[in-house]
Amino acid sequence: MSVPARDQGASGYRIAIVRATIDPAAVLAFVGNPADGAMLLFLGTVRDHADGRRVGGIRYEAYQAMAEKELNAIAGEAARQLGTDRIAIVHRVGDLAVGEVSVAIAVSSPHRGEAYQASRFIIEEVKKRLPVWKHEQYADGEAAWVQGRTLESTEDAR
Predict the structure, then answer these.
(1) Which residue from 86, 100, 112, 154 has the least number of CB within 10 angstroms?
(2) pLDDT at 154
(3) Which residues are paired to 42 by β-bridges?
(4) Ranges under pLDDT 50 in the chain
């Protein structure tokens, strides 16, 4: 994967919006430090169903400049709140097949608690705030624009 991830000034975090396939190992390689005892990788993938319908694929579209700015803000907030700037966030746009990685988040920190907390914060904020739009293509030939769901909205729907 040639992730055009960018250093954000003096911080250690990196963000990218990409069209290429996301390589999880490459994203994980952006984080880590000899002082860290925890490295965590979260992958969001395209699943084969949604709301009782079979999904054949998804197209993600983004306002790239705004999405990069928002990813940068989310990474900065996570770094400030959770005490680690060893964060990488990569979101893919374009056409994705079932099983492909749409978002990858890597975090490292001295302890696992902070790594889990940072990763959870990041994915929830991405779902709430990132200007990326999802167009699901269903197996029956229909398609629809759908809203991303936070974990809280998913739990409320149960």
Answers:
(1) 154
(2) 52
(3) 105
(4) 1-10, 157-158
- Going along the chain from its start, the domains and CATH numbers come out as 6-148 (3.90.1170.40)
Which is it for strands 143-146 and 132-138: parallel, antiparallel or unpaired? Answer: antiparallel
86 touches 29 (CB < 8 A): no
pTM of this structure = 0.88
| Position 81, amino acid | Q
Query: Residue 30 has what pLDDT?
Result: 94
- pLDDT at position 84 is 85
Cβ within 8 Å of residue 49, ≥6 positions away: 55
Which tokens in the block code for residue 138? 């269903």
